[in-house]
């Protein structure tokens, strides 16, 4: 198992729009493509409180590539994402980190 940590850095005041998009739209597409989120967090203390951090569980990099690419290419997802940003962009920058557990990690 590997874990992907994704951090979405939002434009100022746009975090509520991102949270709404995840809860009302994105999670349905994750389910459709078998993408398994572990958890979602907003930042209380840190460099910026305009970000969403979440973790996704993958069996391996091949699973990640197949499922993530299918999700990203979904015409309905592309249209809904564009509609959510019709007023103005939501996300300024995305970080993605692929993490491998250590031998002593409780989550493996």
UniProtKB/TrEMBL annotation:
Residues 3-106 form the NIPSNAP domain. InterPro entries: Dimeric_a/b-barrel, NIPSNAP. The lineage of its organism: Bacteria, Pseudomonadati, Pseudomonadota, Betaproteobacteria, Burkholderiales. Pfam families: NIPSNAP (PF07978). It comes from Paraburkholderia acidisoli. This is NIPSNAP family protein.
